[in-house]
Fold:
Amino acid sequence: QKRLPCRRQFKTHFDKTLEDFRDKKVMEFQEASLKRISLEKDGKSKTLVLREEKKEEDKEKTKAAWASEDGTPMDHQAVSKLLSTLAFLKCQGYPDSPEKADLEKTKPLCRIRLENEGGLELFLFKGDQEEQVYGTSSMNGYVFELSRFSGKEILSNVDQLLGIEKKDPKKKE
Structure:
């Protein structure tokens, strides 16, 4: 009996695990809708607010800029990198354990709260293995695992915005 080529192609669409069908999106928002960002990590916290500033070249026009609550301008590039990573955040997968309620009883590595017409929260936790980052989000009811790249990128941007210096493990104090 001859095998039809379309049969093999058809099989690839259905030869998947349950995990393959799960929605990996854990956070989504429009950057323009944000009014405030709160960050917490390693005992430090900072709230950023969106302010309108006059453009140097045209005093009639304004541009949006992020500043701390005391008015100190924030590094635009660092804020932009953080928000672009979070705006449509997808996870790598959903671990079988820990449960969300159990994970939320532990101290998070980082907490990010984004305020728009509602509010979004993202908590990041140290995973079971080195550089593994678990998370919980107000937009998702499950514990998820971020890719190593996404986890490092988010934590690095938060460190930069909070002024947390990274310790070089090779460097002796």
Summary: The CA atoms of residues 71 and 96 lie 44 Å apart.
